[in-house]
Amino acid sequence: MRVLITGGAGFIGANFTHQTVRERPDVRVTVLDALTYAGDVKSLVPVADHVTLVRGSIADEPLVDRLVGESDVVVHFAAESHNDNSLNDPSPFVQTNLVGTFTLLEAVRKHGVRFHHISTDEVYGDLELNDPAKFTPETPYNPSSPYSSTKAGSDLLVRAWVRSFGVQATISNCSNNYGPYQHVEKFIPRQITNLIDGVRPKLYGAGLNVRDWIHVEDHNTAVWAIIDKGRIGETYLIGADGEKNNLEVVQTLLEVFGRDADDFDHVADRPGHDMRYAIDASRLRDELGWEPRFTDFRSGLEATVDWYREHESWWRPRKAAVEAKYAKTGQ
Ligand code: NAD
Ligand code: TDX
């Protein structure tokens, strides 16, 4: 099987590429990645002998046409992925998330190639803190930010290409991932690397916003389950019942680092900050028999801390610029 992984030099895509090389020796992997600020060839060094890396954009029609034509399956991770960046400059989000996904869809339509689209729970908007509800595949779309609205738009393009053109596609909407190779702009790696540097963690607002954390390895086993056994045209929600508020996450990290529970700063809140995300993954569990393996958040977090301690040369080059950018918005 020939698999084209878009965004394979980013956080989740790199972990997916590693898992695929490790567990599926029969798969021939090509990665298409523009190597934006978020992509890093270093993330693919451990699997470099088993992967063909093509540097280019998913919005480059001739390139996409050629690579898709040489593939059996496309797994589409590439995106602009950070909400805070989308508030500063939405334009690359429209270009990559919408135009890029459109370009891929046209190519898989032409070549009759199986397509799996990676998306986010943020397309559903947010939930109240005291609401027992979780997102299901039937929850209406209600995205809040330029990031989540462009992801929602890309999901709708996929659905329309399935219905109108018979494209062989599936969609997954996953909750917040954590694990190795995540960019230091994101919440958990930002706080881990702050703590390694002896800097206090930065909590937006009161820190009561809830995210439904899942280890990136569990996300990726779910993606393979959907590629292997998912029903064409279907949407699968991926989550591992990992709801935690941001304050709890920071305090767990402080404990892991042996620091006092109040040794953090409250900083400016994110405009339009979604309050709570929560996933009901019963379709994935019941229909496809998927189960998460990283069910103990604290030990998953400890392993992630160890990874950042051991891979300073991977994250250090980006840290100062990320912090300088946050300083401009008082975060
Ligand atoms: P990331 O920002 O770490 O990686 C994105 C990758 O896409 C980078 O390697 C970047 O170079 C590449 N890229 C960006 N624009 C491109 C373009 N035009 N052409 C080709 N490559 C391009 O993102 P991530 O956190 O790994 O997210 C991957 C996917 O998973 C995204 O679609 C995101 O919406 C989705 N997702 C992420 C999370 C999460 O918690 N991180 C949760 C649910 C869904
Ligand atoms: O320094 C910080 N302090 C803080 O309190 C940062 C960077 C974030 N936060 C808060 C904001 C969120 O409530 O932590 C939470 C998580 O923030 P992010 O890591 O920016 O993630 P989020 O906005 O929830 O989106 C993530 O999950 C869904 C990914 O970035 C998306 O790509 C994915 O779709």
From TrEMBL:
Record keywords: Lyase, NAD
Family annotation (InterPro entries): dTDP_Gluc_deHydtase, NAD(P)-bd_dom, NAD(P)-bd_dom_sf
Cofactor: NAD(+)
Location of the NAD(P)-binding domain: 4-301
EC number(s) given by UniProt: 4.2.1.46
Domain of life: Bacteria
Reaction catalysis annotation: dTDP-alpha-D-glucose = dTDP-4-dehydro-6-deoxy-alpha-D-glucose + H2O
UniProt xrefs under Gene3D superfamilies: NAD(P)-binding Rossmann-like Domain, UDP-galactose 4-epimerase, domain 1
Entry similarity comment: Belongs to the NAD(P)-dependent epimerase/dehydratase family. dTDP-glucose dehydratase subfamily.
Protein name, entry field: dTDP-glucose 4,6-dehydratase
Annotated source species: Isoptericola chiayiensis
UniProt lineage: Bacteria, Bacillati, Actinomycetota, Actinomycetes, Micrococcales
Gene: rfbB
